[in-house]
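Final report, closing paragraph on structural work. Over the funding period we assembled a curated collection of sequence-structure pairs, and we close with a single example.
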Amino acid sequence: MLFVRWGLVCLALLCSVSCSTLPPEPSSSLSLTGAKLKGWQKPYNVMGVAYTPLLAHEGFVERGLASWYGIKFHGRKTSNGEIYDMYAMTAAHKTLPLGVFVRVENQNNGLVDVVRVNDRGPFVAGRIIDLSYAAAKKLAVVGPGTAPVVITALGYRHTGADGMLHYALPESIHSGPFAVQVGAFIQQENALRLQVTLQRLYGHADMREVQVRGQRFFRVRAGHYVSLAEAMIGQEALAQSGYGSGFVVAID
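Its predicted structure, as stored:
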């Protein structure tokens, strides 16, 4: 049973571009306004069924069966170009925007957790989401194989000025600025090395020292984006260039 409620969201950045995919190229800036739609953003067909990926996720709620996938796909590419890691908290969905985080609640036991959608599927009748092994284990889905769930789209995750994780809904898509945090290091030398590399390739990168629970870290961030949508495109470009562990953060 699908229940989707979503309002008007201005995503002209994504909607006005042509539907083809090109590999990212280093440039003087990570500002990718006007970038072409990725292959996973275009309508597609599986076993005679047509699917149209959503470009917005506000108010998305869905009820149905969750399943999971593991070792057979471990190490293979996902739909957004990442390498599937069965031990990461990810999931596959047929139409939600890739990169969006969703809350999954197991209706059998009340267990709840959050996963990031980075793949397409499942393409089995009645199933609405394919969880990674790690996510399925936390939600007690591994044993039975499937479970009735409610999934709620939260948004794109970012770290706020308070240092806490937040999930941004589309109404904040034009606020900012944003950057992509590519890594956090204990050794300053390692952070500086990455910063220099990103600065050389993309023209904008910085390193910031932070304290987390008494431990000193050096965060490396790339890009300076005026909207969340633009930052997410930058994140995907970085991932395809080999920096796939990054995530969007709000900056001062």
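Confidence is low (pLDDT under 50) at residues 1-36, 170-174. The helical segments are 12-15, 133-138, 188-202, 228-240. We thank the funder for supporting this effort.
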